[in-house]
Structure formats: structure tokens, C-alpha cells
User: Fold this.
Amino acid sequence: MRIACPFCGERELGEFSYLGDAAPRRPHYAVDDGSDPVKLAEAFHDYVYLRDNVAGTMREYWYHGGGCRSWLIAERDTRTHEFKSVQVAPGAGASVTSPAGE
Amino acid sequence: MKYSIFSLARAALTGHRGWTRAWRDPAPKSRYDVIIIGGGGHGLATAYFLAREYGIRNVAVLEKGWIGSGNAGRNTTIIRSNYMLPGNVGFYELSMKLWERMEQDLNYNTMVSQRGIINLYHSDAQRDAFARRGNSMRINGIDAELLDAAQIRKELPFLNYANPRFPIMGGLAQRRGGTARHDAVVWGYARAANDLGVDIIQNCEVTGFQRTDGRITGVETTRGPIGAGKVGMAVAGNTSRVAAMAGLRLPVESHVLQAFVTEAIKPLLPGVVTFGAGHFYISQSDKGGLVFGGDLDGYNSYAQRGNMPAMEDVCEGGMAIMPMIGRVRLLRQWGGIMDMSMDGTPIIDKTPVDGLYLNAGWCYGGFKATPASGLTYAHLIARDEPHHEASRFRLDRFLRGATIDEKGQGAQPNLH
Amino acid sequence: MVEFSWNTQSPLQKALVPGLHGVGGTPGVELAEIRDIVLVQVMARRGKAAETAKIAKKLFGVEPPFAPGAVFGKEVTLIWSGPDQFLAFAPQGDERLMQQIADGFSGTASLSDQSDGRCVLRISGVSAVQAMAKFLSIDFDDRAFPAGAAAATSLDHRAANLWRTADDPNGVPVYHIAIFTSFADSLYGVIADSSLEYGLKVA
Amino acid sequence: MSGYIESQPLGRTAATEDAAANTPAAGATQSHRLRAGGLIDRQKPLGFTFDGKAMTGYAGDTLASALVANGVKLVARSFKYHRPRGIMTAGPEEPSALVEMRGGARREPNTRATTQELYDGLCANSQNRWPSLRRDFMAVNSLLSPIFVAGFYYKTFMWPAKFWEAIYEPMIRRAAGLGKSAGEADPDHYDKVWAHCDVLVAGAGPTGLSAALAAGRAGARVILVEEDTQLGGRLLSDGGEIDGMQAAEWVQRTEAELNALPNVRIMKRTCLFGVYDGGVHGALERVADHVPVPGPHQVRQRLWRIVARRSVVGAGSIERPVVFPGNDRPGVMMASAVRTYINRFAALPGRNVALFTNNDDGWRTVEAIHRAGGQLAAVVDPRGQAPVEYQSLVKASGLRVLSGFVSDVRGGIDGVRSVTVTGKDGRRQELAADCLAVSGGWNPNVGLSCFHRGRPEWREDIAAFVPGDCPPGMRMAGAAEGTFALGECLRAGHAAGLAAASDCGFTEDGGSAAEAGDEAYAISPLWQVPAKGKAFVDFQHDVTASDVTLAQREGYESVEHLKRYTTLGMATDQGKTSNINGLAIMAAVSGRSIPQTGTTIYRSPYSPVAIGAFAGHNRDENFHAWRLAPSHQWAAARGAVFVDAGLWKRAQWFPQPGESDWLQSVSREVNAVRNGVGFCDVSTLGKVDVRGGDAGVFLDRVYINAFSSLAVGRARYGLMLREDGIVMDDGTTSRLAEDHYFMTTTTAKAGPVMQHLEFCRQVLWPELDVQLSSATDQWAQFSIAGPNTRALLQALCDPDEDLSNEGFPFMGVREVKLRGGMKARLFRISFSGEMAFEISVPARFGNAMAENLMIAGKPFGVTPYGTEALGVMRIEKGHVAGPELNGISTADDLGLGKMMSKKKDFIGRIMAGREALTAPDRQVVVGIKPVDRNRRLRSGARIVPKGERPGPETDQGYTTSICFSPTLNHWLGLAFVQRGRERFGEIVRIHDPLRGEEYDAEICNPVFYDPEGVRQRG
Ligand SMILES: Cc1cc2nc3c(=O)[nH]c(=O)nc-3n(C[C@H](O)[C@H](O)[C@H](O)COP(=O)(O)OP(=O)(O)OC[C@H]3O[C@@H](n4cnc5c(N)ncnc54)[C@H](O)[C@@H]3O)c2cc1C
Ligand SMILES: NC(=O)c1ccc[n+]([C@@H]2O[C@H](COP(=O)([O-])OP(=O)(O)OC[C@H]3O[C@@H](n4cnc5c(N)ncnc54)[C@H](O)[C@@H]3O)[C@@H](O)[C@H]2O)c1
Ligand SMILES: Cc1cc2nc3c(=O)[nH]c(=O)nc-3n(C[C@H](O)[C@H](O)[C@H](O)COP(=O)(O)O)c2cc1C
Ligand SMILES: [Zn+2]
Assistant:
């Protein structure tokens, strides 16, 4: 498998490590924003454990640790392993991004 | 038709024209008390135990392809009960006990071969971890031995004792572990279930669920709708897709695991040897092929095939620990779709949907679980309460924090 | 009062054996370690990539690479090492240079001194590319990797920085590889072993 | 008609080299070698042995062709029935002629004689027979064959249960398997290499050659891989005329032109075995399999990982056997193989050959045999007559053409004696013959096209499967794609080559395709001859037509069930000659069409690959790279014992003369530290530069405790969780400047933590101004511990460095000047519980620092210590480490719950609050010591309440980190125990059945040593 890192170009699978589904978002909350603890726990449970596990195109996190150390967000078909697109995480590089960029 | 050397000899006289189908090929009925989705080891075992133990015989097993076309027909056939954590220990030992009487139960030779399994260790830390595991097994009445370097050398003289990177310091042995003929397990359960009246329906893919006010009342299939009192999923790698038809999101990811077999050679390996530190495990099939594997490829996949880095990683492990296999040729390589749960431990439970049951999350360890999974899942479906040996395989354990994580990797399926 | 001497040592002190190795004849691969270097990782602060580039230009006389590549200043080579990051490499550097870099970038870019964190090898020779094809997965074709090209990649599963400098007088390509110091002893073995069949000359 | 090089006039009888014609040296044994012709080098005779019998052949021979030339018929025994078998094919598809090559550690089972190049001194043996190939006792299996039908073992061997492992299975295993592997470490070396190109062409027959030529001319970077030793493919066997010249000449010219193109690379002896994702192709180069042993610094084989944007696969086609009784006898050979042996190798498989074909191509054999001066007993063709273009030849030579089938073959270990032919009218006649050439038609070699799970499609007109959906970027062409006529192959290859090149943007003039005639190909499919007797489908695995029928009868109807029940197609040839016949028969008996029945899944490798090649250089100590600490060489010189900790080699202890065991050394080191001073290289800890304006906020979110509040010049112990609330890692992190933190991680978790931090920085909180860089290898870091630490440091540091409690408080950090003009970072932190500092200098000074610490500490008897002593002291001090940070424990389990900030969000905070993770009865870390102080504790023992029977219900925990404490002079350690912190002082029972031990122990405070922490502050 080869992954086209937007920075480095196409590279061998061995240079990357995989994290998984990029759909789940880490719930945002502030400690004393009075959010319901049960709901919060459920939101985190969803974020940490539940997956769509799609058979088809999936947005997922890859880390180019064996290269430029950028986190990437790829679209890949889990049935064919074909990559549709590869983007960089908002915080790779130095450009200023708003919170919750992902 | 009972199988035995005598019936075989008798059949020989008539050129084996006397044999009949091992299982019928029925058309689906309009309704069953229980429908099991998935004609793998688990699905068929569940149907068998429903009929044998719980007297529920109006059962159909629906298989989208041919029975055993999933992981049951793809696995490296290792059976063992060397688990450590509460919840796992008892369950896998129950399974081992069922393996030990399988041929007689099924009247089918599934070649359960208890030639033993040895996990090698290479550091004090690893030894301590194995000691912890082994003592947990022993306290639960399961056989385990901690072997030192000298004992390993005696049993496995062909290993690489010169490897400075992974000095072989010893191993954890379970003598009752071993292998079984995976396809035969599928066929044996199919035949036995069939004899008890279960309909095994191949080339019948479930494409949706029928519900009336929330409760499952049947399934849509490529061979038309079929009514059911209860429906149990046993679809392994396809769990999330089938569950999604009922609107469920699960703590499961599908990953590809590869395995390999070499050309057949004369007997070389006594039992199963695992080299965890090097992502390599190996055994020899009765046909003579070395059957080996290692870690997952590491990314979500439904492709049933893997890539070279994983092949290389496994073979490197093999050459590090067992350099005598260097000239043996790798004959075939394949991949199966693992239903990896988020804590590496299976789920046998009711779902939030009334009448729909879940059996999934077997990761790369579900073949050894086949008999116990069938029995405990049948119990759950028949009695609507978990079998005591599977009482911790609950769906809500992730919300409660009661995960069972043998590897301590957390919610990272590709690392389990 | 006892005196203390502070001799430096190379991570290859043991592994690197000068002379000819492997098959006889004219060596196809030449290897040399570049010692006592200055190597600084320069990482632009948020929103300060452009500023960082300006300062680099002021300090080194050249713009840093914005994409994989190596730019050669008088004293210092700038090698792309990641988005809005680069390595400032000087074959023979000293305190003064370090201080210059530190002062120059302060507040604009974050620095991480890697002068001892990496071991830099020079590899050249008519068969260098064949040897490197055994431990580097990137394409060394002139069209794909000309002089001035650079890559952050992996060598035997370990991160490495690689760049190609000007060909030597006989038109033979010259490459530099920076590997992590603690891996040097091990990875040097891989590089050397890969070269033996072409004949290896170690400086 | 074909114009083959050095063809001889027709009609001459048995034009083989008779003894007279032989030079005594060479050929003496080559009774079946043709006088002239072939692509062998008669100037280079080679000696070899088979089963110890000395024979000769020529350079250019394969082992198989040399055996044919020597008149050898019997070469092997079959897998199950041990039937005598000969040579069936002339290529990699060979199911029967497998031999054991070489000997000793290089012994190599199951090598196909048809692909093994002959070399001088080659030594091969037959396999799977006892005591000898001619007299093989296991042949009794043949008598039992009525019982040994498909799947018989599933029906028996079940009683009594325990007999399986003891008796039945060992028996089966001994019988199974083919050759014997060496059973010794492989002495040869292997390489793994990367290559890149635009267009990869696999196969150098007419199709592949024209594809490579077209793509090369168009300007693309081309790699042409050919499994064989020579380019040409079937042209080497069947000749033909191309562009008005003889095929062989065209091949030579084409090869020359390809070599002249700088952008084309030809790789012979290289087999494309797999196609993976992203255009990665796996190919195996046999570098030194044609010599006795590899030369100096030469590898045996090379595994190529070829990254190609496009590929053209001209892998050709494989001739199909026909299923009829006796079709496995030695001397029954594929027609195309007969031609190959005659034309390419100048070896005559038989002096009186019968030909059985159902298609036009088989008729080429007539010509070949004639030209070689061999005799043709008859041609048997169910279609009843010769194809048009052969009819004149039939007349001219008075050749017998019989309409019907071959229904039996008589013969034995010495080969075919006669062939029974049953006419359409049912009349049978017997023909004397010593060889039967068979052609059932051609199967395109579709394997490579299916490795991404594409399914081949059925083509009625050629009665064969052709490629379906190919892997991305792949084009199949020529015979591999069902195009059989030579002219068409040339055009197809050319077109595919051009298309592939232009896909990659190369559009220079690719010239035009070479020209040749388009021979007709007509076939009337014939799968199984209707006749009684053992008719083989899978020759290696002894799967017969009746086995297929039986499988169907028992419901194993799916081809995949058929395969798994009968083992059809599971042999070393992966069914290259048997699968299609098998499924065609299954289709017939189950009343389905062939396409409905379908094929089994094709899997890589296309042809088996030695495991060693997949490992390449990464074996033995090169399995994984290793890491050395900055003072490694110094430690080695002092005779340190090293241990592999992850990838690191760490000094475990430093034995002294007179010390008999490790415990003695370790205890000495601990005592030295506790009573004087010692030092230890701790550079392996992960180190991360965390910089930027928001570094503090960033750390607040990754650690459970606060770091933004940490003052510059101070250090703090920090704990991180995973998002699921479980402890991930710990370490001390110091603040060197407003915008610069220096984090340390555990040695084991350095990598994962770095990845995690980058994820937080780049994905979770991109708005923060933080930059990360690993500084692990930059610094040589030493822990200096013991009452005399300060004194030692005073001697090392510049006199005006104030190291007093006031000048350098506990958890203080700053840069200091050392004597001899050196700067260092000094951290006042303690893992050992003693007064201690950690000092770090750039890694290049690692050895120097160790030496200088020895010098500076000499007056105080300074002692270097290793990881064991380090471990002992941290256990005495109750510090948790690897064994406790086990991936399932919470902060509170480790007694660090109080560190969890209530004021902020941090990774893992919410999930850590789940009921089961906060339950009161969790197993938590405590101290444990044996009641009998002389007793040795061990790690991994279970803990049960005193008086209870051990069992799942009473199992309350286990011991983790255990050591002998020289300080307290008894064994002690840490353990996880249910409600442990409430049970200090309780006596529990330790069960260690693995080691046959059982004893009492006391639960206690994990901090055994200086609980008030006076010493480290002292
Ligand atoms: C390479 C490999 C090696 C392994 N090695 C081992 C090992 O050594 N030891 C061990 O214990 N375990 C091992 N495993 C794991 C083990 O094989 C699986 O955990 C186990 O087989 C899963 O249970 P199953 O047999 O019921 O699954 P499967 O056999 O996959 O059964 C699921 C069935 O459901 C069917 N199905 C799916 N969707 C539908 C639908 N919509 N409608 C109808 N039918 C459907 C599928 O076709 C399939 O037949 C290995 C797995 C692999 C891939
Ligand atoms: N008239 C007929 O009935 C008929 C039928 C079949 C073939 N043919 C003849 O056969 C020839 C077909 O030409 P072609 O070039 O398509 O096929 P070919 O058989 O001539 O050449 C295929 C080549 O590919 C090589 N090869 C196969 N698999 C490989 C792999 N995985 N890696 C590397 N090399 C591999 C083989 O060694 C062989 O050299 C033509 O001459 C055609 O006339 C004729
Ligand atoms: C224990 C075991 C032994 C096997 N032995 C062989 C073998 O001898 N020959 C063979 O071709 N395949 C063998 N296989 C692999 C199967 O042919 C097949 O590839 C595997 O079951 C996966 O199925 P699939 O390739 O159809 O997806 C074996 C598989 C297993 C699990
Ligand atoms: Zn990158």
C-alpha cells in the first residue's frame, strides 16, 4: 500500500501508522459549564468506542511518523484499499487555525 | 448416516455410491422460531446447541455464501484456553472442554489435536507476565507450565538460541492446547445440526430486518423475506454492516488479518509455537504445510486480503526465531476480516433492539471459542439471560468501564 | 584538583572501520561519517512561517525550503524536515553559530538542538543507489530525486532524513543521510552490509 | 508453417545421439538427446546425479530436460497413493516432478525439476518414498485407495478419542508431506530491494516483448521481468516466423533493442509473484539457484518490491490435461511440453509417441516429432480429423488419425507401454507407445489478474476462463488474456505497452507491432473421458474424478467446499493444471454450467517463494534495529552485562571480580548508592522538547495535573491518561523557559507518547502555539544518587555553582558550568529515594561524562549501577513502573488519584470516572513482604485471603514488581490487591502453582524505604 502524503509525496505504508475513523469528534466542554455528567459520559463513550465501521469510503487518521511527522486525514475505500484523497490535519505546519479544526 | 470405519468399508464395496448429503439443501420456510445469521463456526454451533441443549429445533442458519466461507474457513486453527482475566478464563476453558469431546458429540472427525502450545518469553518482564497468566489459569483449574530455557531447548531444539536480540529464556506451555481441522468443524456442526432438524440455507444473504413496533419479526434476504421469533447475528467481520441494518452502532472495527501456508513437508513441528515479541506464530497442518501468521495489517478493511509489509514482518519474525524455515516456500497467503472489538474481548449479549441478539468481537481468537460461543449464545437466545460463563461479555461494559483488555491496549482495535 | 577532559565520541566509533570491505576491485560505494556537526531543528511558531523564512534568509543567505528539498547556503544547509520546519545543518559548526541561530529565531521559531541527536553519513559511488535501494523505499531516479532533493523517510523502519548534494567531480551522485544517534550503530551495519557486494570504501 | 532453427529433414528415424556419436565425457548417458538443435550449449557438458545415479546434460538444460535426455521416466511418487510419476510439463506448473535439491543445511524439498537449471555437480533426490523410488512400500496406499477416498478421515479415526494424538495423527502426518526440509538454519543470505518504474511488464513471450518494446520506445521507464532464464516464452518451444525472420532471431534482436534503451531494464530469472495495493508488485529474483552455492557477498535470492504505475502482464497460458484412466502414468506428458523438450532442449520424451488432442494447437506436436525424427504411433482427436493446415502433412507421412478418446494407459514405473483408444463407436484398440502427448486446450494464466479478488470470466469459444476485473493499473495481454494467435499476441502486447505508457504520460513514437501469421485455434472441450478406472484431476494430491463426484454427492458442491474436502488445487502447483478440469467435472455432475460453478479464489504468490526471501536482511540480530545509550562503549569496556529493553541495550549491572551471581552485583550496587554515591545512564528515557507560547496550556491538557503553573527552573512529576481513562505514561517534566518545557517519558512509551502528543497538537488543538521535537538522542543523561551526590557534583561542577538546598532545591532545574569548560543541565529529581540529581550533556560527551563521574566520585567510592539496581531502589521506594503501568490500571489504582486536577479538562478525565473504574473493590497497588523474611517472593503469583481455597472467587490480586532488598535484607515488592490500601498489615496467602510455591505474606505500604522522603530532600 502507498499513501500520498500531501507534503512528502507517495510513500510506502511502513512509514505510516494508523489510528482509525476520523468521524468521531472529541466532545468539547469546560469543567464548570454545568453540562450533564451522564450526557457527557455518553458523548465520550460514543467518541472513544462506537464506530460506523463502514464498508466503503472512510475518513481516517494516518500518522506519517516515519516521515514528516504530520497527521493526515485520508479517504479510503475499505473494500478495495483505494485512497480517494489525503489531506493534512489542520494543526500540521504553522498556519493558525480555529479551535476544533477537526 | 453414521460415520465409522465400518460404514466406510461397507461404502467402499459399492464404490461409495451410498453416501448421502452431509446436510440437506432446503428451501427457506416462511418462518422459524430462531434465525441465526451467519453460517460460520459460531452460527452453526449456536444452531446445534439450540437444538440439542435447549430443544429449539425450528431453526435456520442463513449463510450468504457457502458455510465456512468467512473466518471459520480462513483461520490458523489454534485452540487454547491460556487466558488471564476474569470473564475470559472460564469461558475459554469451557470451550476447551467442549473441544475435547467434539468428535464424539458430532460423529465427525474434526481432528482436534492437543499437541500443545508454547508461548516463548525473552525477558524477565515477559516471564513475569506469563507467570501471572499461568497462575491465573492454574487457580482456575486449567493446565499451564512455566518452562525454562533448558526445557524449551529440549522440546524445540530447532529454535534459534543464538539470537542475541531475543534470547529464548523459556516459555508458557499449555499441553491441552493445539489445533483442529477448521473446515471440518464447520461441516461437523452443520451435519449434526442438520440431523437435529436445523435448516442450513446457503447463498442466502440477509439484507434487512422486519420489525413490528420495534421488535424484530424476521429478516429480508436475497431469497425473500423469512419470519422469525428471534434473530441472532453471528457474522463476525460483517457485524457492523448487519447491525447497521437494525440501526445499531457497535464498539467493533473490521480489520484484515493475514495467514500463510508453506508447501507440504514431512513433520517438522511438534505443536504450536508463538513468538509474541516477534509477531510470529506457527504450527504444522496434518497435510504437512507450515501454517503461520502474526499481527493484523493494522487498518480497517473488508477486502479479505492484505499487503506485503505484514507478510515481511511475519517472515522476519519467523527467520529470527526459526531460521530453519528459510528455504521452505511460502505457498499461499490470504486474509480474513476480523471483527475487532474495542477491548479485544467478544460480545455475547442482547441488543437494544427487542428480539435481536449479538455475537461478535471475536478478533483473531474466535475459532477456539466456537463450541463455547455456540453453547452460551444458544443459552442467551433460548433463556434470554446470559450463560454464567459468558456473563461478562456484555455490550454495556464499555459505558460502565468494565472492559476486559488482556493486552492493555485500550480502545485501539488494531493493537489488540 | 583533578582536571576533567571532555573528549567527544562518535556513535560509530566501534562500527565504522575505515578501509576497503566486501568484494575487491574499485569500490562501488563510498561511506563517510561527518562528525562534530551543528544540526538544529527549526520549527516556525504558529502563524510565523513567513517570518521564519525571512530570518533564515538573513541568517544563512538562502530561503528555507517550503517543500521537501535541500537549500545550500555558504556555511549552512537547510533541509526540509516537515511542514514549516527544517533542519539547519553545518558540517563544522560551533558555539557561535548555535548562538546566532538561537538569537535570530527567538520568538519566531522554536528550536531543538539535534547536533548530537543525529548522525550524518555521506554516501556516494557508482553503486550507491543500488545499495540504498535495499534500505530506502524512495525513487532515486534523477528525474525523481535530483541534486537538491530531500526526503524525510524511513531507513529499516527508523526515521531518517536524506538529501542529495551536487555530484562529485566525476559526475557521481552524492547523498547525505541523517539517522538518530542511538540507532547509528545498528543502521550503519545495514548500510554497510548492503554495500559489500559492490565493494565498500569507508573513509 | 513453423520455421524452427536447425530443423532436420522429416522422416529420419530416432535421430538421437547414440553412444557412438557421443564424446566419452558428455552425453554418454543421454540416450534421448537429439543430435542437433535446441538452445543448449553442447560445448558445456554438465555432470549431475539423481538418486545417486550419475548422468550428464548440457548448459541450458533444466533438471527435467536433462532427465528426459537421459531417458529417465520415473521421477517421483504422488502425495497420497504414492503412485509412480514422471515429468508432465516443462514449466512452473509442474505437479508431479518434484525433487529434493542439494543437501545438508541447504536441502530444499519440493523443487520442480522443470524449473531447476542444471549446473555442474547438481545433486537431486526423489522424495516421499521409502526405501526407494522404484520400490516404495507406501505404495500399499494404492491398494487401500477404495477406502482412502476424499474426506475418508473425517468419517473415522474417532475412537477412542485419545488415540488421535497418540496413533492416528502421527501416522497420517508421517504419510503426508512431500520432501524433507533441512531442519537447520538456512546458511544463505537474502536481500529485499525497492525498484520504481512507470510500466512493469511481466513475461517476455511475444506479448511481453512487444509490450516492453512499445512502452520503452514511447519513453516510459520500463522493467521487464521474466521468470525463465531466457526471453521468448513459447517462441523458444514452438518457433514461428516474425517480421520475416525466425522467431529465435526476432527474440535476439528485440532483446538487443531493449538493452539499448536506457529507460528499460530486463530482469531474467525473476518471477512476479504478487500484486499489492498502490502499485506495489512483489517479484523474486533467483540470483544463485543455478550454482552450487552463492559466491562471496552474493545473495541466494532477492525479493523485489517494484512500485509501478502501470503493468502489462503477458504471463501466457498453461496447457490443460484431460481426465482419463491412467493419465498420471510416467510418460504421459503435456503436448506443449513434448515440443519444448524436443525443440528447446533437443531431448526426445519418447521414441514412439501417441498424441491425444481436442484442439488444433496440439497438432503442432506432430510436426515437432516428425522433425526430430521421432515416431508417431497415432493422433487421437475426438473431432475425428486433422485441422486443415495439417492434412497435407498427414497424407505425406501416412500418419494414423483416430477419432475417439484415450480411455486407458498401460505401463508402470518404467513408463508408458501402450495406450488404449476407444472410438466414437465404442470400439477399443491398443496402440504400442512409450509416450503419450496430451492437449486438452489452453488455460490463460489469469492468476495475477485475480489477486485483488477479481473473478475470471468464461469464454465459450476457447473453452477457458479469461481475466475479469484486474487490479488497478494492470493490463493482461496475449495468451494470458485468451489471445492465442502469434500475430494477435504481438499486436495485443504492443497496444497494451503503448496504452500503459501513455497512461503515464509517455507518448513518443512506439513504432509498430511486429508481424506474424495468425494460426487458427479450434477446440471441442473435453474434460473427462467416459471410461472406468482411476482418472486423475489433481496429480500431486491424487484427486480423482470419482472424488469430485463423491464430494458433490455429499453436498460439498461449492467449488470452495470441493477444494477443501478433496484438497483439489491445494498442492504446490495450486491447481495450475487441475482446477479447471475439477470444476468442469463438478459442473457436469451438479448440473450447473461452468461459469455458474466458478473458480476458487486465486491468491499470491503466483509461484511459491522461500520464506527467507521475505525476511531478507532482517533476520537473527538484524531482526530489529537496536539502540545504544551514549555511554554504551564505556559501559561495555567496564564489562557491564547488557539487557535488551525494547530496542535499547541497557547496562543491567556491572559485575566485579569475585562476584558469583547477579544478585550479589546488584545488591552491592544498591548498597553503594544508599550509603555512598552511584550513577546510572538514564538516557533511554524519552525526551521531548515542548515549545511555544501555549506549551503550558498544552501540557495541562495532556497531563492529569497542572503544568502551566510550574515555575521556570522547576520540575514536576506528571501522569498522562489515555482517552479511555487508563494510565498511559508518566515522567518528570521541567520548565526551562517561559516557552520551553522539557518532558521525559518512560523508555518503553517514548514513541507512542510522541505520536499521541502530535495528535493532540495537530488534530485536537490546532489553535495552540506548540512545537514538538524528540530530543531523546540528543542528551546523555545520568542519574547520580546517594548521600555523597552533592560532594561528587561539587567536585565536577565549577566552584561557584551553589548546590545547597537553598541554591538548588528539590525539584529544581538549571544549567550549570562544569570543570574543564563544559555546560550541563542539572535536575534535582530522585527515582531512588536518595539525595539525587540527574545531569545531562550532549550525547557526544556520554562516555566522557561517565569517565568524569568516576574521577569526580573516586574519593567517595562512586559506583556505576545498572537497570537492576535502579529497579530495586524504585521498588523499595514504592515507585510504579512498567509492570504497574500495565494498560488496565487507573491513576487511583496506582495511588496517584489525588493528582487528578478537578479544575480542568484533560485527556481521559471523563472516561476515568466510569463506575467500574472507580469501584471501591478494584485491585490497587500495595507493598507486599513475606511473613517468613527468608522466603523468596516471585512476580506473577496470585493473592488469596488466608484460609480460603484458591479459585476464581477468592483470587484477589497478584504480585508485580519483586526484588530482594539489600537495604531491608529481605524479599519485597509491589502487588495489585483488591481494596489493598484498606488492608495494610493483613496476612494473605500467596499461591504460585506454576512454581509449586505457597506461603503467607503481609500487605503493606508500598513505600518501604524512607516513607517521609527525608533523604531525597536532605
Ligand atoms: C487469518 C486468520 C487466522 C485466525 N487464527 C485463529 C486462530 O488460530 N485461533 C482462533 O481461535 N481464531 C483464529 N481466527 C479467528 C477466527 O477465525 C474467528 O474469530 C471466527 O472464525 C469467527 O467466528 P465465525 O466462524 O462464526 O466467523 P465466520 O466464519 O466469518 O462466520 C460469519 C459468517 O457470516 C456470513 N455472513 C456475513 N454477513 C452475512 C449476511 N448479511 N447474511 C448471511 N450471512 C452473512 C459470512 O459469510 C460468514 O460465513 C483467525 C482468523 C483469521 C482471519
Ligand atoms: N495457437 C494456440 O493455440 C496457442 C495457445 C496458447 C499459446 N500460443 C502461443 O503462445 C504464445 C503466447 O505468447 P505470450 O507472450 O502471450 O505467452 P508466452 O507463453 O509465450 O510467454 C509467457 C512468458 O511469461 C513468463 N511468465 C509467466 N508468468 C510469469 C510471472 N509471474 N513472472 C514472470 N514471468 C512470467 C513465462 O516464463 C513466459 O516466458 C504465442 O506464441 C502463441 O502463439 C498459441
Ligand atoms: C490450517 C490451514 C491449512 C492450509 N493448507 C493449505 C494447503 O496445504 N494448500 C493450499 O493451497 N492452501 C492451504 N490453506 C489455505 C487455503 O487454501 C485458503 O487460502 C484459506 O483457507 C483462505 O481461503 P481463501 O484463500 O479462499 O480466502 C490452508 C489454510 C489453513 C487455515
Ligand atoms: Zn509526510
